[in-house]
Each structure stands twice: as C-alpha cells, then as structure tokens.
Amino acid sequence: MMQAHSRLIASAQDGPHRDLEALVRRHLAHPFRKPILDYNRAALAAALAAHADWNPRAPLILDAGCGVGWSTQRLAERYPDHFVLGIDQSLDRLNRGKPQPLPANALLLRADLVDFWRLLAENGICLARHYNLYPNPWPKIGHLARRWHGHAVFPVWRELGGELECRSNWRIYIEEMTLALGWLSGQPVVAESWRTEDPMTPFEKKYLASGHQLWRCRVSLG
Predict the structure, then answer these.
(1) What secondary structure does DSSP assign to 99-155, as a single string?
(2) Neighbouring C-alpha atoms within 13 Å toward the C-beta of 35
(3) What are the Cα distances from residue 168, in Å, to 19, 25, 115, 134?
(4) CA 81 to chain CA mean position, Å
(5) Cα separation, 74 vs 71, whole angstroms
(6) Which of 22, 34, 103, 206 is a Cys-bridge partner for 76, taking CB atoms 3.0 to 4.6 Å apart?
C-alpha cells in the first residue's frame, strides 16, 4: 500500500468523555424538535423516487457522510440486491470524480444528515444497513455534542434499525460510540481494532497508508 503522512488525532481526552452518559441519556429522554429544512425534504423525495424506480422492495443501505462516494459505490457492488443511498452535506465532495460509474442500485444526494435521519424515521423507513465511516471526530473536549453519539439526533438511529457500523482512526471516538450504542440498544457493543487490505473510503486508504490504527464497532438495531 502507498505511503502517506496523515496526522494522528490530537486531543486532551485520554478516555471517554466524563459527560457522555448524562448527555446521551438526556437526548434519549427528550426528542429532538429542530425544524426540518425544505431542501432535505426534497432530498428524501428524490431518494424514495429513485429507490422505487429501481426496485421498491429492495432493502435500503445508508452511507452516512459518504464524502466523494467511494464507499457508496463499494457498498452497491457488495450488496447488488440492495439500494444504497450516499448522503453528504457537501455538494463539492459529491461532484468529485469517481473511479468508476455509480452502479444503478446507488444514489448520491446532498442533504443534512440531522434532517435526513429524522425524515427517514418520520416516514417509517427502516434500514437494512447503516454505515458511518470516519465521521469528523471533533476531538476537543468541548466538542462532545458535535460527535454523532453526543448529538441530539442520535436516538433516531434506533428507529431506523439495521446493522450499524462505525469506523474511525480515533480509538476514543469508537469507545464513546460503543458506550452510546449500548445505552441506545440495550445490548453489549464492543470496540475492535480494524484493518483491511481493501479500504472503502479515501480516508481509510490514507490512514492505513500512514500507519494509523483503525477502530470500529458494530451493532444490530433490529
């Protein structure tokens, strides 16, 4: 694998945030009520139309924060009987060149995940698989609420169901995610070291080439 020089994540934290459990349990007790923006409703309508056109009975996979869409492409190839939605907030990233044409069972869309997750749940849409690959770690201690497991939208993941997988090159992020998913699902979730010869995203490829240790956690949300 090529060599690269990606910096390790630096943080004053040396373990899971001391306020994590209180924050997650507060979010579990109080539903998130922020208004949903129209462009995200339009994105959901486009996603459902594309799914219906391809195969309305196909199980859905969500590639959350898909970036340039390499992982969406790989998932569509890996699960040819599923329909894969790659969602990212950056139109610039979504428009960047892909190594191959996107398969017919995949769609890339610009949307805010905070709204898109809630819209899926409001419409009773369940996921077969749910991927969160190398999200922004927000490593400063004061940024806990910006990490997905500390965000007020986090409880919606339980409504979406599916086999959920999160990967990061920051061990603490996965340790926190593991704890939060355990409180969310009521089942044990473990953090595990992760290595692959077949990276799914440019970040995963870069981190591996830089010699970073990768981590992941997985849980079935039903």
Answers:
(1) SSPPPTTEEEEE--HHHHHHHHHHTT---SEEEEES-----SGGGGGGSGGGSTTTT
(2) 3
(3) 21, 23, 23, 5
(4) 21
(5) 5
(6) 103
The residue written with tokens 């004053």 in the block is: 12
Could you give the 3-state DSSP secondary structure of residue 173?
Answer: helix
pLDDT tens, residue by residue, 57-95: 999 999 999 999 999 999 999 999 999 999 999 999 998
List pLDDT tens digits, range 163-209.
999 999 999 999 999 999 999 999 999 999 999 999 999 999 999 99
Q: Which residue do the tokens 């959350």 mark?
A: 64
Q: Which residues contact 170 (CB under 8 A, 6 or more apart)?
A: 9, 11, 137, 139, 215
Note the pTM of the prediction, 2 decimals: 0.94
Q: Which residues pair with 64 in a beta bridge?
A: 87, 132
